[in-house]
Specification:
Layout: E1 8-14, H1 18-30, E2 37-43, H2 50-57, E3 62-65, H3 71-76, E4 86-90, E5 94-96, H4 100-110, E6 114-122, E7 133-134, H5 139-146, E8 165-167, E9 169-170, E10 174-178, H6 179-185, H7 197-207, E11 211-222, H8 240-262, H9 268-291
Parallel strand pairs: 1-2, 1-4, 2-3, 6-11
Antiparallel strand pairs: 4-10, 5-11, 6-10, 7-9, 8-11
Helix pairs in contact: 1-2, 8-9
């Protein structure tokens, strides 16, 4: 699909989302002429015929597969196939629209101090996916969101969603960055199974001296929640055990992020207090997800 070395490598991680992946790839193909690019699908041992569908309908896609060991390992698996200068992590439950590739790549090209960029993510009901722009989950921000129920600051709701601006963290559903920067910071931390890995990668990019930007001049559609089993229509794609594991992994990622990135920024006594809070939250999540859902 490209004549020269690709400038952009699009990595799509798939696990039993054959129909959604097909729609995503169709939308990608429609706008592949905007930027010299390649598409890589990394498959986490799907059993829904995804592999056969790709080989039959999208022979131009590079394909690699391995065991289902989570989001981080699944995406990192594709690094050996990447030939592009830039890498875009794209969810299979997304639909790409006109100018997304060309304008986000151009933005990154024209702003050398920016390490990663995302576009606007729009949900099927027309609302913006708030997870597209977030602040780092430092203790006070997390306390406001999880305990006080005040998430306006966390989601940058004090800034219009049609304004281009720097953010601390962007979402892994559409995450455009440089390969050389990924190589420098180590790609996704594979200790994260699901959730938190995108925020952690943003933290490492920021730590390396680069900013991250929310660029809403273009948008994609994000079905959201499919890979977590939250959408009723696609819930059959995951077993109850898999859904519970994903939900619990989200809390485990909180502790990993804090120990890795924030532990030394606060007094030891305070850090232990934070970990106590995280583990109490983990117990609450366990009761809600594992025990109550069994009845």
């Amino acid at each position: 699909m490209y004549m020269t070395k690709p400038k952009l490598s699009v990595i799509i991680l798939n696990y039993n989302t054959k129909e959604l992946l097909s729609d995503c790839l169709k939308s990608v193909k429609e706008y592949m002429n905007e930027v010299p690019m390649e598409v890589i699908v990394s498959d986490n041992s799907s059993n829904d015929g995804s592999q056969e569908m790709i080989k039959k309908n999208f022979p131009w896609v590079k394909f690699i597969e391995g065991p289902n060991e989570g989001f981080s390992k699944g995406n990192n698996r594709a690094k050996s196939l990447v030939e592009g200068e830039m890498v875009l992590f794209l969810n299979p439950d997304t639909i790409v629209h006109k100018d997304v590739f060309v304008k986000t790549v151009r933005y990154l090209d024209e702003h050398p101090k920016v390490g990663a960029v995302t576009c606007k993510l729009v949900l099927p009901n027309g609302d913006m996916d708030k997870d597209v722009r977030r602040r780092f989950p430092v203790p006070w921000v997390s306390f406001q969101k999880l305990v006080l129920g005040k998430s306006k600051y966390y989601y940058y709701e004090d800034i219009p969603d049609n304004a281009t601006h720097e953010v601390e963290a962007i979402q892994g559903a559409f995450f455009l960055t440089y390969k050389k920067l990924l190589d420098k910071v180590g790609w996704f931390d594979e200790r994260y199974f699901f959730d938190g890995e995108d925020v952690d990668l943003c933290f490492q990019i920021n730590k390396a001296g680069y900013s991250l930007v929310y660029y809403p001049d273009v948008y994609i559609t994000h079905l959201k929640g499919v890979t977590k089993g939250k959408v009723k229509k696609w819930r059959h794609k995951l077993t109850d055990q898999q859904r519970k594991r994903i939900r619990m992994a989200g809390v485990a990622s909180m502790e990993l992020f804090y120990r890795k990135n924030l532990w030394k920024k606060y007094p030891v006594w305070f850090s232990y207090f934070v970990l106590l809070g995280i583990n109490l939250y983990k117990v609450i999540r366990f009761v809600r997800v594992v025990l109550l859902s069994s009845y």
